[in-house]
């Protein structure tokens, strides 16, 4: 992580270079595309349309400084389905700039500097479904119609502060829309019927601030063209003061079923006039968002207004300029007595009195979230009258200043049909040990409070319980019919035991401090189907990684429904930040005992095999002899140094060292020694001097190591005579002498050895480890002791010649 922080500035500069890198044609390049071929190039500082991959399906170029789109900028993007150019300084678009976008379905050109709209832009965009042209400085749409070829268009937004006229032919080609948004605050001309040919028309939003003030007839004509019972109508940016008429609604109000007013300012007179228009009309839903009330709430017409057909009333972000003078209870009570669904949200309501709630006899859904209600004012709202809100099914009081759960439970107990209660984002810190709740309560939301413990106060009738984002460390309750449990954002170290929740199907426990969970934890929940446990501090042990990866692949009975990337290792340190699905642990880390056991077993087996192989190849003999040779060599070197100090001691003292078996000693002593060491017969043609032989019985120094004696004898002799027989092969001492001679042969060469066979003996009778000797027997002529008496003189003559070979050459 430290290295990443150091490299971050360089990575950022590299990213900027990548985003603005220039091709050969001088155009910048944007490479911010994801795996779904969605390219987000917004806020990139581009002044021209950048180059992107031709595989892009979505291209977002919003909030740059692009001033024009040329003919070639979007060439080759035939797969592009969505193009967003809003928030630039776009003033010029080539007539054929979009011709290659054959698959385009969404085009956003809003918030630019387009003064003229060219129909040629859309000639080849037949698949287009969504088109946004809002907030450009054009004063008219242009002729011929922009939309003649757009038969699939379903969402259209146009207009702006400079739009002055709408002619009947401007929307030719538009047949039916799911959504129509028109900003016409400064519109001067509107041809009746311009919107009249569009049907069905799902949702219409009109901004008509100017027409309502200066040209009510124009506003009325527009309203009449878009008013259908099935159409949801939204009017925005209106300021209806006492001198501004609401007559534009006169003809259309009897047709409208769904009306929404956004960013509207109303005086008391305007409210009275509007209520008079709504009297008895079949309006089903009225929504007020961003409403500013400038009066005191003295709406006399409210008492006579019949709103019995209105099922839903929604008010949000209501501002009362003079709250101290506003008569909250006097008139509103007549407006809320018929609605089945009533919402007053984020409107700084601190009191909704019992006098008003008693009138809500038909209310099934009540939302007073994000207001200023307290435990005290809640007591006034849910008064002790048993007739208050008796039909209520859903109550939302989230985001208020509530602190006492016992007060809440006591007050809602009287709501005998209540099934859902939302008191999230409140100030509850504790929970009493016992509470009374409606037996019908199935859904309870106390998320984002400050609870540190839960008690049996919670009702056993719950099917859905949300306690997420509190300070809980454990959850031990018996809730037999609970189906969903939300515990995300707490401090749980482990999953709650599943036994008390036999019917639980969904468990959400993200963003806690879970270290791990196992199959047994999940199996404790009898019917658990869905689990979300990402963003925890997982310890990535071998067992947990193996188990979780199997769950992520869907092989378990429980389905993990959140993103796999949210399951990240927190420890060990070398895996911190790594997604569990990408972690791969070795057998050394996972099974150290098994690994050591197997390794030792394998090593032992290999050791046995190697030892057997070495024994088979006589490696131990070579090692033993090498050690003996080295040791004897050091002794020999000492003897040589001693000889160098004594000039009278010759280096070579014998003509031959005789190696023989003790069983063959009689032949050596009776035949070999007399023939070699005694002078030859006088009748010999060429008498020779006697030879000196080295015999271990006679010439080895007593008290010295046997190896030193053998080594010294071989070194001090010109030749080594091997008297070979079956006895020789079986003799241990002969093998030692043969072993050392074998080493000596490597240094001195083959001529240093003389072989005498006392009896027939093949090379196969010699041990295989004496490879040099076996080779000598194959390549060197050896002497055989003749059994016939007459052949023996020739044998002795050949042996003498072999032993004197060096001397004769020297002479």
TrEMBL record:
Pfam hit, one: TIR
Membrane-traversing stretches: 593-615
Main location: membrane
Alphabetical keyword list: Disulfide bond, Glycoprotein, Immunity, Inflammatory response, Innate immunity, Leucine-rich repeat, Membrane, Receptor, Repeat, Signal, Transmembrane, Transmembrane helix
Membrane topology label: Single-pass type I membrane protein
Disulfide bonds: 33-39, 354-383, 435-457
Compartment(s) of residence: Membrane
A GO term for molecular function: transmembrane signaling receptor activity
Family named by the database record: Belongs to the Toll-like receptor family.
Reported function: Cooperates with LY96 to mediate the innate immune response to bacterial lipoproteins and other microbial cell wall components. Cooperates with TLR1 or TLR6 to mediate the innate immune response to bacterial lipoproteins or lipopeptides. Acts via MYD88 and TRAF6, leading to NF-kappa-B activation, cytokine secretion and the inflammatory response.
Protein's UniProt name: Toll-like receptor 2
Organism listed in the record: Xiphophorus maculatus
């Amino acid at each position: 992580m430290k290295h990443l922080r150091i490299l971050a500035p360089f990575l950022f500069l590299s990213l900027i270079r990548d985003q603005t890198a220039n091709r050969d044609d001088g155009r910048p390049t944007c490479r911010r595309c994801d795996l779904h071929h969605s390219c987000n190039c917004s806020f990139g500082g581009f002044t021209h349309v950048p180059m992107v991959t031709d595989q892009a399906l979505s291209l977002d170029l919003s909030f740059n400084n692009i001033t024009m789109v040329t003919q070639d900028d979007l060439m080759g993007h035939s797969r592009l389905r969505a193009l967003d150019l809003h928030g630039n300084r776009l003033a010029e678009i080539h007539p054929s700039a979009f011709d290659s976008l054959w698959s385009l379905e969404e085009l956003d050109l809003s918030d630019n500097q387009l003064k003229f709209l060219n129909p040629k832009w859309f000639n080849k965009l037949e698949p287009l479904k969504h088109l946004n042209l809002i907030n450009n400085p054009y004063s008219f749409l242009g002729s011929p119609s922009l939309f003649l070829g757009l038969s699939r268009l379903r969402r259209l937004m146009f207009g702006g502060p400079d739009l002055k006229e709408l002619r009947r032919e401007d929307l030719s080609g538009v047949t039916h829309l799911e959504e129509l948004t028109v900003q016409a605050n400064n519109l001067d001309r509107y041809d009746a019927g311009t919107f009249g040919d569009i049907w069905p028309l799902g949702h219409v939003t009109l901004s008509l601030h100017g027409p309502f003030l200066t040209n009510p007839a124009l506003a009325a004509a527009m309203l009449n063209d878009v008013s259908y019972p099935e159409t949801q109508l939204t009017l925005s940016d209106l300021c209806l003061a006492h001198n501004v008429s609401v007559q534009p609604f006169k003809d259309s109000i009897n047709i409208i079923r769904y009306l929404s007013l956004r960013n509207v300012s109303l005086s008391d007179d305007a409210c009275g006039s509007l209520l008079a228009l709504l009297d008895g009309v079949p309006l089903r839903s009225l929504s007020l968002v961003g409403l500013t009330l400038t009066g005191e709430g003295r709406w006399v017409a409210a008492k006579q207004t019949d709103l019995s057909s209105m099922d839903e009333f929604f008010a949000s972000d209501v501002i009362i300029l003079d709250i101290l003078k506003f008569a909250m209870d006097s008139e509103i009570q007549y407006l809320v007595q018929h609605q089945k669904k009533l919402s007053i949200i984020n409107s700084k309501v601190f009191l909704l009195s019992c006098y008003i709630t008693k009138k809500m006899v038909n209310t099934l859904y009540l939302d007073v979230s994000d207001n200023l209600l307290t435990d005290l004012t809640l007591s006034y709202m849910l008064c002790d009258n048993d007739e208050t809100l008796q039909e209520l099914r859903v109550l939302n009081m989230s985001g208020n200043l509530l602190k006492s759960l016992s007060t809440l439970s006591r007050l809602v107990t009287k709501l005998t049909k209540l099934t859902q209660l939302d008191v999230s984002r409140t100030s509850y810190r504790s929970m009493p040990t016992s509470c009374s709740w409606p037996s019908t309560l199935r859904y309870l939301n106390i998320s984002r409070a400050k609870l540190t413990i839960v008690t049996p106060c919670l009702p056993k009738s719950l099917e859905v319980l949300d306690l997420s984002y509190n300070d809980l460390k454990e959850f031990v309750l018996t809730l037999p019919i609970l189906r969903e449990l939300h515990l995300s954002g707490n401090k749980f170290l482990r999953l709650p035991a599943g036994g008390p929740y036999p019917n639980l199907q969904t468990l959400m426990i993200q963003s806690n401090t879970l270290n791990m969970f196992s199959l047994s934890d999940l199996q404790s929940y009898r019917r658990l189907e869905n689990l979300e446990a990402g963003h925890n501090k997982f310890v990535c042990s071998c067992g947990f990684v193996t188990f979780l990866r199997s769950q992520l692949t869907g092989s378990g009975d429980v389905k993990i429904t959140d993103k796999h990337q949210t399951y990240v290792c927190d420890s060990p340190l070398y895996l911190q930040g790594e997604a569990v699905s990408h972690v791969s642990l070795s057998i050394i880390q996972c099974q150290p005992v098994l690994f050591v056991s197997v390794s030792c077993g394998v090593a032992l087996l290999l050791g046995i095999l190697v030892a057997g192989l070495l024994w088979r190849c006589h490696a131990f003999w070579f090692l033993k002899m090498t050690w003996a040779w080295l040791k004897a060599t050091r002794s020999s070197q000492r003897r040589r140094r001693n000889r160098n100090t004594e000039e009278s001691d010759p280096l070579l003292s014998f003509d031959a060292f005789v190696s023989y078996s003790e069983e063959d000693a009689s032949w050596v002593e009776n035949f070999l020694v007399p023939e070699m060491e005694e002078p030859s017969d006088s009748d010999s043609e060429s008498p020779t001097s006697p030879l000196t032989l080295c015999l271990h019985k006679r010439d080895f120094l007593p008290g010295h190591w046997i190896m030193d004696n053998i080594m010294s004898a071989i070194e001090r002799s010109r030749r080594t005579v091997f008297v070979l027989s079956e006895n020789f092969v079986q003799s241990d001492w002969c093998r030692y002498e043969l072993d050392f001679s074998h080493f000596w042969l490597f240094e001195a060469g083959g001529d240093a050895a003389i072989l005498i066979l006392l009896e027939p003996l093949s090379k196969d009778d010699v041990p295989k480890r004496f490879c040099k000797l076996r080779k000598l027997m194959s390549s060197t002529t050896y002497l055989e002791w003749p059994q016939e008496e007459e052949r023996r003189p020739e044998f002795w003559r050949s042996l003498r010649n072999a032993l004197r070979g060096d001397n004769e050459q020297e002479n």
